[in-house]
Design goal:
The protein is of the alpha/beta class. It is built from 6 helices and 15 strands. The strands form 5 sheets. Strands 2-1-15 form a 3-stranded mixed beta sheet, with helices on one face. Strand 10, helix 4 and strand 11 form a beta-alpha-beta unit. Bound molecules: glycine (GLY).
Length: 257
């Protein structure tokens, strides 16, 4: 699928006050802005037109714009983040998406769901059940997706250490091919896919994104980069160290549609 647009939001001055379990130290504000700018340029190089939102100091994690919405060609789904400090991020995202979409669905209480737990693989969606996305949120999403002609299945990641969202450990690269961290490699849900396993020392690299024929990958994971290049993928490595410190990655930093 070709993407035309992306929504991004610059990290704010209080980005370091967001949620994190990474234990990698506090992010450097200026470096985060530089890395974000380079990420935006990379999206543009991949042919995307950007809608860039300014920092929202009410929500330190709001640079991770992927979590408040799921975008389909025909409709937008507004999520209900499971992290209380992120719940209000949906309000400004709903407003922004009104510029692009006329059809909306919304995850409602008691459902919770964050976009990081949703992995689209052609016409199928994997929905991670995590500490942020509950079964009711997944059930509601699955119904909305069915109405729009998609299938879905749930993958429980609550007992898998080190995986905040499903896409912390999985990515879809088209052609029935999934990137998987070792702990998800033998999951029965993925048995019909061709899989590329990430070396456990490079787990962070699993969060990569395919955009219009290029694969954006985190810089500093040479085995993973070589693996993809040997398979013929056109990689574009980007430094995202400051976002890694806040449990975020390449997919979380944009909504692509
Ligand atoms: N810091 C990103 C998150 O925890 O949602």
């Amino acid at each position: 699928m070709n993407f035309k647009n992306a929504i991004v939001r610059q990290p704010g001055k209080n980005f370091s006050q967001g949620l994190t379990t990474a234990n990698l130290g506090s992010p450097d504000e200026l470096l985060a802005l530089e890395q974000h700018a380079a990420y935006c340029r990379a999206l543009q190089d991949c042919g995307l037109k950007l809608a860039t939102l300014g920092p929202d100091l009410n929500y330190p994690d709001s640079t991770f714009v992927e979590d408040p919405a799921i975008l389909l060609p025909t409709a937008a789904i507004i999520t209900r983040p499971g992290a209380a400090s992120r719940a209000g991020e949906v309000v400004s995202m709903r407003r922004e998406l009104g510029r692009f979409y006329s059809k909306f669905y919304e995850i409602t209480s008691p459902g919770t769901l964050e976009g990081g737990d949703i992995c689209k693989a052609d016409n199928h969606f994997f929905i991670g059940i995590s500490n942020r996305t509950n079964e009711e949120g997944a059930r509601q999403l699955s119904e909305f997706l069915a109405q729009e002609g998609y299938t879905s299945s749930m993958v429980d990641i609550r007992n898998i250490p080190g995986i905040l969202h499903l896409k912390t450990g999985i990515a879809y690269l088209g052609n029935h091919t999934l990137i998987l961290v070792e702990r998800l490699r033998d999951h029965p849900m993925f048995k019909d896919y061709r899989t590329i396993s990430v070396d456990p020392q490079e787990n962070y690299a699993a969060n990569c994104i395919l955009i219009n024929g290029r694969v954006l990958i985190a810089k500093g994971f040479p085995k993973f980069q070589s693996q993809l290049e040997a398979l013929g993928y056109n990689t574009l490595p980007l430094e995202v160290s400051e976002f890694e410190k806040m449990d975020g990655g390449l997919s979380c930093l944009s909504l692509r549609f």
